[in-house]
Amino acid sequence: MAAGGLPSSATLLLIIILVAAVAVAPLASAVRPVSDAHRSTAAELFAASPDGSFGDLETTYEAVRTFQILGVEKDKGLIGKACKFAAEKLASSSSSSSSPAKDLFHAVRISGVLKCSVDSGVYDDVATRLKAVIKDTNSLLELYYSVGGLLSVKEQGRNVVLPDADSTFHAIKALSQSDGRWRYDTNSAESSTFAAAVVKNDIVKLFDTIKSYDDGTFYFDEKHVDATEYKGPITTSASVVRGVTSFGDVASGKLNIPGEKVLGLAKFFLGIGLPGSAKDCFNQIEAFVPLILSLPSKVFSLTSKDQLKVEVTTVFGSAAPPLRVNLVQVLGSGSKVITTETKELQFDHDNNIHYLDIAPLKIDVGKYSLVFEISLQEPEHETVYATGGRNTETVFVTGLIKVDKAETGISDNDAGTVESVQKIDLQKDASISLSANHLQKLRLSFQLSTPLGNTFKPHQVFLKLKHESKVEHLFVVPGSARQFKIDFLGLVEKFYYLSGRYDLELSVGDAAMENSFLRALGHLELDLPEAPEKAPKPPAQAVDPFSKFGPKKEISHIFRAPEKRPPKELSFAFSGLTLIPFVGFLIGLMRLGVNLKNFPSLPAPSAFASLFHAGIGAVLLLYVLFWIKLDLFTTLKYLSFLGVFLVFVGHRALSYLSSTSSKQKTA
Amino acid sequence: MPKATSDAKLLIQSLGKAYAATPTNLKIIDLYVVFAVATALIQVVYMGIVGSFPFNSFLSGVLSCIGTAVLAVCLRIQVNKDNKEFKDLPPERAFADFVLCNLVLHLVIMNFLG
Amino acid sequence: MAEPESSTAAAGGSRLRNAFGGVLCAFTLLLIGVLAFSIRLFSVIKYESVIHEFDPYFNFRVTQFLSKNGIYEFWNWFDDRTWYPLGRVIGGTVYPGLTLTAGTIWWLLNSLNIPLSVETVCVFTAPIFSANASWATYLLTKEAKGTGAGLMAAAILAMVPSYISRSVAGSYDNEAVAIFALIFTFYLYVKTLNTGSLFYATLNALSYFYMVCSWGGYTFIINLIPIHVLLCIVTGRYSSRLYIAYAPLVILGTLLAALVPVVGFNAVMTSEHFASFLVFIILHVVALVYYIKGLLTPRLFKVAMTLVITVGLTYASKYIPIIASVSEHQPPTWPSYFMDINVLAFLIPAGIISCFLPLSDASSFVVLYLVTAVYFSGVMVRLMLVLAPAACILSGIALSEAFDVLTRSVKYQLSKLFDDSPAASGDSSAESSSASTTSTNSAKNETRSEKTEAPKEKPSKKNRKKEKEVAESVPVKPKKEKKLLVLPMEASVLGILLLIVLGGFYVVHCVWAAAEAYSAPSIVLTSRSRDGLHVFDDFREAYAWLSHNTDVDDKVASWWDYGYQTTAMANRTVIVDNNTWNNTHIATVGTAMSSPEKAAWEIFNSLDVKYVLVVFGGLVGYPSDDINKFLWMVRIGGGVFPHIKEPDYLRDGNYRVDAQGTPTMLNCLMYKLCYYRFVETDGKGFDRVRGYEIGKKHFKLTHFEEVFTTHHWMVRIYKLKPQKNRVRGKLKKLKSGSKASSTNAAGRKKNPWQ
């Protein structure tokens, strides 16, 4: 559990374990070294504003530090502007911000990163101010910023002495809480762990508060106290890691941190991939510099005598320092140990690759876990890089599988007596011919062996029987069976009672098998009894065998069969027939002597009368239009207009008529 | 039976004579009624031949003929001078009612015709 | 010259009186309309303007759809939020009259910029149309008997409890509009019969169309009118007006009925309409017979008749129509008659007699209407509603006749007292004397009315009506006056007083019925206790919860009673609702409710159900909850799915949920959902409706989880627990590597940064 016994250099401590975590990360969540993608993202995220300040001081510092770590090239102009910005802040003696220490802290760090040239007098002034802050303040943040500022000043070559360090430490301790966290704890994980440098065992307690995601990554998170101040898991975790790092700078002695938690932290950071926000990017980069071990190819073929190749690079993709890689263990499936002797891989300078011949290892085909160990050749690199303990990688070893002793036959139901056995050569398509009825069994047996001579259990073995009507049946042959039997008696219904000629095909395959095959074996004449009435019908086969899983034929739904319609001639004939009574009506009218004598002769009434008839005609025309294309409410609307008109006109016409006729009557 | 047939012939003759005495305008209306009923009969025959699909069209066709025949009969009743109950009603008013009802009937028919 | 002068003066005076009478009549009608409207507003005053019951919610939802989407969408609407997964064709299975009426009113008001909401329009549609119905009653009775009877009948109909029960404000159901359409159609028929005008015949057909749109009871009209026509023919009252009244109605009416999708071709194919066709044919035969009779001599006519009859009888015997049998509803009890029509029950026989003196087409129609309505209401209690207008008309006639006789006696006696000159000496003098005494009598009547006017304006209205009626009847009655009965003064005054008291009782009963018996919205319940009025608004609480806390597409399963309300108020898809058209679907829900948890979960899951809703009254004592309806769930479910056997749930023939309950009962889903955590309320689990402690008190739900229980525990909503992802024990043989990612330890979060 504890990663004890390691040097107390904090960077080394953390990074070793983190790299170990990196190497153990499962293949599924691939972690990658920093790539150009990271760099361009960083450049985009930290887009400078015209005056080169990147916004406020904190953002500026993050930007430049990120660029520094990633190796992003910036133009000189930006550097100059940033320097000037920082210098301004340093020089301003009366800071208007609420937290002068914080500003100074960031400004000093910026100039440190960019290696700006700042007057020494300015730094002395800064140092004085920071010391003043330390003496007066009660806030942990202020303390952190001041001490951190002093440290950066010291790094840049100035001589800074912290007077009365003890009292400072006591002040810090006084602000501690019992659970390893600290009061005033917005974004103070860093400061808290820094302060915990005073009290060592608080760090362990802090690690107890670590949280986890389900895929094994660990992270720190703050309680969601204040939404505006909430920084998020990435920031928090990064702060903690930074804090532990700086603790390691200051303290001596061992650190007992649970290894798996550190592993999880590493996975978390590396698994993030390309972070979204500027802060996340910065946080991700600043944390550590591990080394990564990767295999360019994970499949080795025994046949072609491949070599095992291993590549070691840093997280950022740059070359690793000189080191040695040892193959420590080979584990088979089920953690069975194959070899335990350590083999050193040889280094190819040209391609920057470590390689090893695996043939002498006598590894058979299959899936294996290889355990590697990296050791740095130069001891001072150990403070900068971390190699981790053991890295495990999964590889496949493939080879040619020999198939022999293949034979097939038909046997009767009562176990055993084989009627006919035919040998098959599975190197090429065979064409044996068998015949059986439903009372018999088909037997198939073969042997598979690896290049080293062991029995091989393939992943897939299928036997396919295909009827001439293209109905197929697949049978899975159990991997460990040497013999395979198909009992037709129980399969009569499954075969849909289809007798006839069945084509046989055998297919054997595995990931470790380089010569997986699909062979036609020949055909089988099968005699099955007659299908009873209610037997299920075989499913309709796809028209095109290659489109078996493609779209099926389109089904046209008929919800209701359309009614039978009479022939057109009959309908037309009857339509004509209906007109006959009308003709008869007209003839009858003429016979009766119908005339228009009563039509009014005076202009006004005759106009009304003709309008009346026209109105009626218009209404009938509207009805015809309604039948053809209008809808009910439009018709009703027009009808109301026409109706009003008609009522008016008709009233006038008819009243005139009635008055004339009553005059006739009285006269 | 000879008596029945001779009775029937006498019946028909007297009917024909009595009918000829009706005024012309009533005869026009009667002719119209006969025309409408004949059309309805032809439609029924057609339905008998080809079946009743679509039923709504058949209904609307037949009922329009029967309906207009009924309305014509109502008009005839109202216009008939022998009818004591309606002597106050001017025939023009009866005709106007007739036209109105026919228009409503035919609107409904057109909606139902489909 | 004195006589002509007095006659012209009298004529002028009578015209003035006529005019005054007309105005008074109109004003009275207006007041009757207001009365009809306001007596139905008790529920709005006591509770709020909310839609009642269950069926009105469906109508309301349909109206909402209509107002939002327009009529063409409504006509073709297929509703997929009910009877999931079957859906329901609304356009073809609903009587659209009510919805279209309310929709038109809403549209009209909105186009006039009066922004009433659809709900308000729906709530108040019924009172408005009851006012219309009383006016229609006035018109109908006027055609039958006269204005006085008309006003009387209208006033009675405005208040009759049977009609109030189906048309209070908030009861947005078909009958609210249909009764108006019924009465109006009858009025137009009688009017056509009386006038013989084709115009009124067309209007009659259109009104019949409105009735067909509104209610399934339109078959009553299309059977009553043919019976009346037949009656007229048989009693020798055939006339050409009868032909004009009936024949166009059949043709046009059938066509219009076929236009309504619900009826469709049933208009010509079902036995309910055959009576009309048969009578149509009979009428034509009779008309033809009369016509020929006019043409031929009698002897020949007899010959023709014998010829025809021998031929015709052979056909007629084969095609006698079958009157459709009546449904399975319960017949009413005597007390329900008294509750619903009260005093009218005694006045009806008097009205019948009055109709026969003299008998006209219209009055025979009214009597026939009453007789058939009594028969049908005796078979099915819902048709009491159809009896109500007939009862009101006849009671109105009876009362007005009674008042007529009594006031005339009073007037005559008073005239004998005050008048010195002999009263019986010719028409005009009698007229003038009665005219002069009328004015004094009117003054006397008014004083008397003021005395008897306990602040009820109805009796005084009646008095004024009587006085106006007397004024009207004066020009008509002078000849008859001699023949009529004249009662002694005291008897007639006592009679008038007693009749007024009778009317008073009627009014009191009607108002009480409207206020107490028929105004409960049933969606909100109240109870009075020591500390005031408790309101139980649990149903709406539950529906509001559903509509705010579930997805729009979630399906809710409950017993069919609550289907309409759930779709209308909670706006969620339901499995079964009050339409109950698919028995198998209802049986599926019933089976699920009667099965143990796992089986019920399977059934509900196959129907895509997410939430289950049950109604439980055990905490507050609400008696019509799902446990009391449970026996129907078992019976209906068992009727379709034989594995549900009713004896499994019965102990000694009873459904029990206490410790004596059968294990099947105590394990079924309905029991569990109703009584889950019930023991927490009082520690003992005492069910107030059933009156004992429940059997199984402490249990957990394995396949459902409780998501909401209303304030008084009346509605409880549960959610189906999702299926477990991993099936135990089956997949151990597969390689563990592939399983590593799926078997998450409980409580671990997914890494969002990956």
From TrEMBL, chain A:
<dbReference type="InterPro" id="IPR055375">
    <property type="entry name" value="Ribophorin_II_2nd"/>
</dbReference>
<dbReference type="Pfam" id="PF23861">
    <property type="entry name" value="Ribophorin_II_2nd"/>
</dbReference>
<feature type="transmembrane region" description="Helical">
    <location>
        <begin position="572"/>
        <end position="594"/>
    </location>
</feature>
<dbReference type="GO" id="GO:0006487">
    <property type="term" value="P:protein N-linked glycosylation"/>
</dbReference>
<keyword id="KW-1133">Transmembrane helix</keyword>
<dbReference type="Pfam" id="PF05817">
    <property type="entry name" value="Ribophorin_II"/>
</dbReference>
<dbReference type="Pfam" id="PF23860">
    <property type="entry name" value="Ribophorin_II_3rd"/>
</dbReference>
<dbReference type="InterPro" id="IPR055374">
    <property type="entry name" value="Ribophorin_II_3rd"/>
</dbReference>
<keyword id="KW-0472">Membrane</keyword>
<dbReference type="InterPro" id="IPR056790">
    <property type="entry name" value="Ribophorin_II_C"/>
</dbReference>
<feature type="domain" description="Ribophorin II second">
    <location>
        <begin position="291"/>
        <end position="397"/>
    </location>
</feature>
<comment type="function">
    <text>Subunit of the oligosaccharyl transferase (OST) complex that catalyzes the initial transfer of a defined glycan (Glc(3)Man(9)GlcNAc(2) in eukaryotes) from the lipid carrier dolichol-pyrophosphate to an asparagine residue within an Asn-X-Ser/Thr consensus motif in nascent polypeptide chains, the first step in protein N-glycosylation. N-glycosylation occurs cotranslationally and the complex associates with the Sec61 complex at the channel-forming translocon complex that mediates protein translocation across the endoplasmic reticulum (ER). All subunits are required for a maximal enzyme activity.</text>
</comment>
<dbReference type="InterPro" id="IPR055373">
    <property type="entry name" value="Ribophorin_II_N"/>
</dbReference>
<keyword id="KW-0812">Transmembrane</keyword>
<feature type="transmembrane region" description="Helical">
    <location>
        <begin position="638"/>
        <end position="657"/>
    </location>
</feature>
From TrEMBL, chain B:
<keyword id="KW-0256">Endoplasmic reticulum</keyword>
<keyword id="KW-0053">Apoptosis</keyword>
<keyword id="KW-0812">Transmembrane</keyword>
<keyword id="KW-0472">Membrane</keyword>
<keyword id="KW-1133">Transmembrane helix</keyword>
<protein>
    <recommendedName>
        <fullName>Dolichyl-diphosphooligosaccharide--protein glycosyltransferase subunit DAD1</fullName>
    </recommendedName>
</protein>
<comment type="pathway">
    <text>Protein modification; protein glycosylation.</text>
</comment>
<comment type="function">
    <text>Subunit of the oligosaccharyl transferase (OST) complex that catalyzes the initial transfer of a defined glycan (Glc(3)Man(9)GlcNAc(2) in eukaryotes) from the lipid carrier dolichol-pyrophosphate to an asparagine residue within an Asn-X-Ser/Thr consensus motif in nascent polypeptide chains, the first step in protein N-glycosylation. N-glycosylation occurs cotranslationally and the complex associates with the Sec61 complex at the channel-forming translocon complex that mediates protein translocation across the endoplasmic reticulum (ER). All subunits are required for a maximal enzyme activity.</text>
</comment>
<dbReference type="GO" id="GO:0006487">
    <property type="term" value="P:protein N-linked glycosylation"/>
</dbReference>
<comment type="subunit">
    <text>Component of the oligosaccharyltransferase (OST) complex.</text>
</comment>
<dbReference type="Pfam" id="PF02109">
    <property type="entry name" value="DAD"/>
</dbReference>
<feature type="transmembrane region" description="Helical">
    <location>
        <begin position="31"/>
        <end position="49"/>
    </location>
</feature>
<comment type="similarity">
    <text>Belongs to the DAD/OST2 family.</text>
</comment>
<feature type="transmembrane region" description="Helical">
    <location>
        <begin position="95"/>
        <end position="113"/>
    </location>
</feature>
<dbReference type="InterPro" id="IPR003038">
    <property type="entry name" value="DAD/Ost2"/>
</dbReference>
UniProtKB/TrEMBL annotation, chain C:
<dbReference type="InterPro" id="IPR003674">
    <property type="entry name" value="Oligo_trans_STT3"/>
</dbReference>
<feature type="transmembrane region" description="Helical">
    <location>
        <begin position="274"/>
        <end position="292"/>
    </location>
</feature>
<feature type="domain" description="Oligosaccharyl transferase STT3 N-terminal">
    <location>
        <begin position="24"/>
        <end position="295"/>
    </location>
</feature>
<comment type="subunit">
    <text>Component of the oligosaccharyltransferase (OST) complex.</text>
</comment>
<keyword id="KW-0325">Glycoprotein</keyword>
<dbReference type="GO" id="GO:0004579">
    <property type="term" value="F:dolichyl-diphosphooligosaccharide-protein glycotransferase activity"/>
</dbReference>
<keyword id="KW-0328">Glycosyltransferase</keyword>
<feature type="compositionally biased region" description="Low complexity">
    <location>
        <begin position="420"/>
        <end position="443"/>
    </location>
</feature>
<feature type="region of interest" description="Disordered">
    <location>
        <begin position="726"/>
        <end position="754"/>
    </location>
</feature>
<keyword id="KW-0460">Magnesium</keyword>
<keyword id="KW-0472">Membrane</keyword>
<feature type="transmembrane region" description="Helical">
    <location>
        <begin position="89"/>
        <end position="109"/>
    </location>
</feature>
<keyword id="KW-0479">Metal-binding</keyword>
<feature type="transmembrane region" description="Helical">
    <location>
        <begin position="299"/>
        <end position="317"/>
    </location>
</feature>
<protein>
    <recommendedName>
        <fullName>dolichyl-diphosphooligosaccharide--protein glycotransferase</fullName>
        <ecNumber>2.4.99.18</ecNumber>
    </recommendedName>
</protein>
